[in-house]
Amino acid sequence: MSIYSVVIHAKPENLESVSTALEETKGVEIHGTSEKGKLVVSLDHPDRGYCSDTLMGFHNIPGVLSSALIFEYFEDDDSNSELPDGIKLSEDACELENACQN
């Protein structure tokens, strides 16, 4: 299982077409956008290679200026290990818990 959190910067005039292209991409969910062309998205898929290729493919979407990987979580499907402290899986994405506490 791979979960990526990404910030994408698009030309503001292309925000709608970039959003549409992202929404049509398997495993991508848009969590927020700004009028200045920034989008916060998550990407999750069982195949780490698919996620890496998709992340690199964001640059090929017309109107995308840049994309930045903010967070990556990867776990082998055969692994029985638990998530690191402070991370909880939700239906949408990983959420940091206790990030602002001591």
Explain what you see:
The protein has 102 residues and is of the alpha+beta class. The protein has a single domain, classed as 2-Layer Sandwich (Alpha-Beta Plaits). Helix content is 19%, strand content 39%. The protein contains two helices and six strands. The protein has helices at 15-23, 48-57, and strands at 2-10, 28-33, 38-45, 64-74, 87-89, 94-96. The protein has a four-stranded antiparallel β-sheet with strand order 2-3-1-4. Strands 5-6 form a two-stranded antiparallel sheet. Strand 2 (28-33) and strand 3 form a beta hairpin. It starts with a strand and ends in a 6-residue tail after the last strand.
Topology:
Elements lengths: L1 E9 L4 H9 L4 E6 L4 E8 L2 H10 L6 E11 L12 E3 L4 E3 L6
Antiparallel strand pairs: 1-3, 1-4, 2-3, 5-6
Quick summary:
The chain has 102 residues and is α+β, with helices and mostly antiparallel strands. It contains two helices and six strands. The strands form two sheets. The protein has a four-stranded antiparallel beta sheet with strand order 2-3-1-4. The protein has a two-stranded antiparallel sheet with strand order 5-6.
Percent of residues in helices comes to 10-25%
**Strand order of the main beta sheet, please?**
2-3-1-4
User: Which structural class fits the helix and strand makeup?
Assistant: alpha+beta
Largest sheet: 4 strands, antiparallel
Distance N terminus to C terminus?
A: 30 Å
Q: Which superfamily, in CATH terms, is the homologous superfamily?
A: Lrp/AsnC effector binding domain/regulation of amino acid metabolism (RAM) domain
Average pLDDT rating: 83
The general outline is globular
Given the structure, what is the number of helices?
A: 2
- How many β-strands, per DSSP? 6
Radius of gyration: 15 Å
Query: How many structurally independent domains?
Result: 1
The run of helices and strands is: EHEEHEEE
**Poorly predicted regions:** 91-102
CATH class bucket: Alpha Beta
Strand residue content: 35-45%
Based on the coordinates given, report the CATH architecture: 2-Layer Sandwich
